């Protein structure tokens, strides 16, 4: 039997009021890419923090290369050849690529920084990843994907033999994600072991040889990716039987499927040239298109966030022009942005304050906040949305990504919209939270709202939508409804490989 590169044995960890890990075993071979899956709170973050030396276990041991490994600090982990690239990147935009690669450990000669050596070695580290950039240029000029590769180059330059990648493609577009996946495969072929944390099933199957599933702080299973179906993975993650096809359609939703907003010949520079379609009350409408097709721009135009250069809109049978965000909201149109942390909420404010941020008037009397009314509204939102929290007043930034997204959606729902526009509402959240968000969307539509949903993951439309519009070449080229909403069909139609039937 081949000796693993690293073996975590009987790892347990508890914090005040919660047991994060219970007797977990985790072993990886050299050159293996291991997908690590689990809902928020499953224990995967604690496990990799212990592996990286950020946290110390209460019980258990770590063996690397057959020898016991004592990790007191992250620096101990780096010295042992273990490095982490976090979801939130830690590059310094104002510094050069070379300075970022050697951040805090710049090579010196005669007491001074050896710039030539640093640039030469940074160039070599980037070349290993297939990244041919001038190491002297500022990181600020790089794309998000390139910045991520700079962080990986930094880890490799530190001698990393085990690389932990936390949601590495959550902020990347499809083409950039493919580049990163290619780099991960290449590193594995060269002998680097990689722990790959992601919620994207299709991505996991492209990049990982094996998968470890955690739930409630326990190791549930480790198996070759090829030996387990998506359905089996979801069942193990959630601890129950879950169908692959998602929840039933909204055929019985309350409210007539009447056109609420009609859009004709809409032109939104630079991508949308001539879009015509209807948004109906009581349904979940998906907009599918490849990256750069203008999905986000289309939602922004409806929400009053982006100017239009042509076309018309009719709301409730009357001409409508959302000249501003305020006008759109005054007419019952509310959008949740893709960047929930930067644009959708204020992380340092309380959960309660975020939930009523767009609906202050509903909890005010004579311009003064009615704290009793606010507490009642917030409590109702927390119950309805299933938000997991310690206290309504704690900072939103303390919550998991899935719970943060529920708050962003809750803020929109509290504003009593008629049309709810959701831009990538499940990006970066775990499978359990995704299904809860899908249910929120279905419930909103069942209450008569028009829910418009944009996603870069085709599979999501099959889970939740009643109707999906195809956005291609700057126009709405067709629609798919009901049982016809299938991954293969939508992929063909959005990429233009086949016409709309």
Quick overview:
The protein is of the alpha/beta class.
Question: Overview of this structure, please?
Answer:
It is built from 17 helices and 24 strands. It is of the alpha/beta class and about 500 residues long. It has two domains: about 5-240, P-loop containing nucleotide triphosphate hydrolases (Rossmann fold); about 260-330 and about 415-495, Rossmann fold (3-Layer(aba) Sandwich), CATH 3.40.50.300. The strands form six sheets. The chain has a six-stranded mixed beta sheet, sandwiched between helices. Strands 18-21-22-15-23-24 form a six-stranded mixed beta sheet, sandwiched between helices. Strands 2-1-4-5 form a four-stranded antiparallel beta sheet, covered by helices on one side. Strand 7 and strand 8 form a beta hairpin. Residues about 240-255 and about 495-500 have low confidence and may be disordered.
């Amino acid at each position: 039997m081949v000796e693993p590169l690293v073996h975590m044995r009987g790892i347990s960890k508890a914090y005040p009021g919660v047991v994060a890990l219970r007797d977990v075993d985790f072993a990886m071979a050299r050159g293996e890419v291991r997908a690590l899956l689990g809902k928020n709170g499953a224990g995967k973050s604690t496990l990799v923090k212990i592996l990286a030396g950020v946290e110390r276990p209460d019980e258990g041991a770590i063996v690397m290369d057959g020898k016991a490994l004592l990790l007191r600090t992250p620096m101990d982990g780096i010295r042992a050849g273990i490095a982490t690239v976090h979801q939130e990147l830690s590059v310094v935009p104002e510094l050069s690529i070379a300075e970022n690669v050697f951040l805090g450990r710049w090579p010196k000669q005669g007491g001074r920084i050896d710039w030539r050596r640093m640039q030469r070695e940074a160039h070599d580290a980037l070349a290993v990843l297939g990244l041919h950039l001038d190491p002297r240029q500022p990181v600020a000029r790089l794309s998000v994907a390139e910045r991520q590769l700079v962080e990986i180059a930094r880890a490799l330059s530190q001698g990393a033999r085990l690389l932990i990648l936390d949601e590495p493609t959550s902020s990347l577009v499809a083409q950039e994600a493919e580049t990163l996946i290619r780099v991960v495969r290449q590193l594995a072929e060269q002998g680097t072991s990689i722990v790959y944390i992601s919620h994207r099933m299709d991505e996991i199957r492209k990049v990982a040889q094996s998968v470890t599933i955690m739930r409630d702080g326990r190791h549930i299973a480790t198996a070759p990716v090829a030996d387990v179906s998506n359905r089996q993975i979801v069942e193990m993650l959630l601890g129950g039987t879950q169908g692959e096809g998602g929840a039933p359609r909204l055929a019985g939703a309350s409210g007539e499927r009447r056109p609420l907003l009609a859009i004709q010949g809409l032109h939104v520079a630079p991508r949308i040239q001539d879009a015509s379609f209807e948004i109906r009350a009581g349904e979940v409408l998906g907009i599918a298109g490849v990256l750069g097709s203008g999905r986000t721009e289309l939602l922004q135009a409806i929400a009053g966030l982006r100017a239009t250069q042509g076309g018309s809109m009719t709301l409730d049978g009357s001409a409508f022009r959302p000249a501003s965000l305020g006008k759109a909201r005054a007419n019952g149109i509310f959008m949740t942005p893709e960047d929930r942390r930067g644009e959708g909420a204020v992380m340092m404010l309380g959960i309660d304050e975020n939930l009523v941020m767009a609906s202050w008037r509903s909890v005010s009397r004579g311009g003064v906040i009615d704290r009793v009314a606010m507490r009642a509204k917030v409590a109702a939102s927390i119950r309805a949305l299933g938000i997991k929290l310690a206290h309504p007043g704690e900072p939103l930034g303390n919550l998991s990504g899935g719970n943060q997204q529920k708050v962003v959606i809750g803020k929109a729902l509290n504003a009593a919209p008629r049309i709810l526009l959701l831009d990538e509402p499940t990006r970066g959240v775990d499978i359990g939270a995704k299904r809860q968000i899908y249910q929120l969307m279905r419930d909103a539509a069942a209450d008569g709202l028009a829910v418009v949903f944009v996603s870069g993951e085709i599979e999501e439309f099959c889970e939740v939508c009643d109707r999906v519009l195809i956005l291609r070449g700057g126009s709405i080229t067709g629609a798919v409804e009901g049982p016809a909403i299938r991954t293969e069909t939508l992929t063909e139609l959005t990429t233009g490989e086949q016409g709309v039937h």
